Amino acid sequence: MGTSLAGIDLPILKISNLCDDSDSYEEKPIIVIIGRQHSGETYSSFIIHGFINNLLKKDLLCNKFRDLYETWIIPMVNPDGVVTGNYRSTL
Questions:
Q1: pLDDT band for position 56 (50/70/90)?
Q2: Is the per-residue pLDDT at 59 higher than 80?
Q3: Cα→Cα distances 14→40, 69, 72, 89, Å
Q4: Distance of CA 40 to the CA centre of its chain
Q5: Where are the beta strands (DSSP E) in the chain?
Q6: Where do the structural domains in the chain lie, given as residue ranges?
Q7: pLDDT at 23
Q8: I need a labelling partner for 84 at 20 to 30 A (CA). Which of 7, 13, 17, 22 fits?
Q9: Residue 36 in contact with residue 77, Cβ under 8 Å?
Q10: Is the pLDDT of residue 4 over 60?
C-alpha cells in the first residue's frame, strides 16, 4: 500500500497481530514511525530496517507489542529527493 501527492508513491508498512476473536474488532492505538525525512539521511534507513526486524521477531515482548499496538512505518518520506539526488527537496 502507498500514498502519493505527486511523484513516487510513499510505501506504508502496517504491522500488528490480528485479533484472536474474528467476530469482534478492537481498534488498537496506532504508532506512526517515519524514516529518511531528508534524502541524505541514509543512516535512518538502517535504523528503520533494524526496527522492522526487531518488531517482527518471534519474541514474547515483540508479540505483546504487536497485540497492543498497530505500527505504521513509512521508511522513506522523500523518495523523489532520493531518486534525484537532492538533499532536502523533492522534485
A1: very high
A2: yes
A3: 25, 10, 5, 26
A4: 18
A5: 2-3, 10-11, 13-15, 30-34, 70-74
A6: 2-84
A7: 53
A8: 13
A9: yes
A10: no
